[in-house]
Structure prediction request, 595 residues.
Amino acid sequence: MAKQVTIDAKGVHYTPLNQQIRKAVEDGVDEIVVDNVLGQRFIGNGLRGNATIRVNGVAGGDLAMFMSGPTVIVSGNAEHAPGNTMDSGKVVIHGSAGDAVAHSMRGGKVFVRGDIGYRGGIHMKQYETQRPILVVGGSAQTFLGEYMAGGLLLVLGLDGAMKAREIGSGIHGGEIVIRGDVDEACLAAGAKKLPLTDEDRARIAPVIQEFAADFGLDAEPLVKADYTRIVPASARPFAGKYTWE
Amino acid sequence: MCGIFGVMDKRRQMMDGSGIREALSMMNERGSGEGAGYVAYGIYPDYRDCYALHVFFDNACENKAIVDATLEQWGSIECDEAIPTCDQLNLKVNCTPWRYFFKPDASLAPGSASPEKDVVTNLVMQINACANGAEIVSSGKNVGLFKASGWPEDVADYYRIQDYEGYIWLAHNRYATSNPELWERPDPFNLHDWSVVENGKTTTYGANRRYVESFGYNCSTGTDSEVIAYLIDLLTRKHGLDINLAIRALAPPYWDEIDRMPEAEQNLNRALRFAYGSATMNGPFTVVAANPDMMVGFTDRGKLRPMVVGECGDRLYIASEETAIRAMEPKVESITRPAAGEPVIGRVAP
Prediction:
């Protein structure tokens, strides 16, 4: 039988709160419900295993940083950089998130139902089978995929027009897929647009279906929709800027 | 880092300082315990016609006589007293906070459109420029600024800010990068009407400082927020720009954004950038500023610092983190994160 514990985070500083969560994971708890969260940072940091952590409230900065395995589900918004350098596992945010979402992420999934702030997916990277995925249901802001080195960044734009400019500034790996057309003027130097091929669509379809299932959305129209795929124009966008051959 | 917080009640309903203390302490991770401060509007209704001068004396015996004499030259002191404080275990007191309620002599600034404010400005510049052991930290009507080197809770308790009631409050939690000992260094900064709190660091400090100093302001603390307060006073009071244009001059759109605007808007924005090139602030920053009639927030163009806006009934909140807003207003009705270049402007009902 699945083991569950509930922790009341009201007025608790993040250090003792995270100690309690860590202890529960060590004790083999499968589901940890954390109520009344109000900005406590570093929840789920460096945790391993396959527990599920339900964060009820607003998660503080650097949620699930370095996390490797568990699932974190946030009922409200998250502050800056959820999924920072995350290794594997999953973060599901039902609200919106601040700047630098999925900062340097190296594996696993971050799903945000609402909007994200500036510099989403900054320096996401990939290595062999490690391939991080960030999906945004709403809109992303400027410098989306800045210095991106790998992984998949998918923006569905369910709640209106995308506001992001300077998309893929310094991108040298990975791909950014955005529903609808993206004005060429919104791309940063070093990024280029490509049409989404059938092969690409087949690759992103399971991601869209998983996202839709997590948030109770109809996946079918999203899978069929038009997308713009943005990739690096070169593997070394700043080769001539900072170095001399 | 640094954490900033601002709240304004559009109908001037008063808030005591306890909620602001709690909101700011939610962001302690953004500070280093080496500076915090609060500024509030509407706290001195009994002296609403006087300029409230908050002064830090190195030593009240030696340094006060100089300030008394200077003030008497420029107007009259209605009342003066030590600011009530309550010693805190973790706060090392290194000056004596004092307040004057002062009426400037308007006839001493002939030809000025705002003679009283010119007198007060000159006084602040003169006293702060001298190494006379006195530093005026705030100088507005019905406004007071309370700051020290310490954690937000200790600074709040030292000044007993829960005893003050204001309709606009700004607060700042400092992540010190230099000069941690001096009480006048942390934000907020104030010059009569305007108060400023900032999260960040402008990289254009030198250019901006030379620009305001060419108009007679004197920057005595070496801190960018001081320059920002003077820039806002210069652009709005002296140059008559409305606050929208003033913010646009300080944090203008990039040239390529201007290129995409309709022609009339292009012309305006080009003119502003040419006229105020030296006032343009660069580097990472979020600024929240207030005067008796409004509270505004804006960020740098590249959005390198956070700004969260909350609204609930008559209350407008601007903060570095959503949690600070929710600490004071658990049932907040809307939370937004405005884009860079979209200033947030809240006005008090006339």
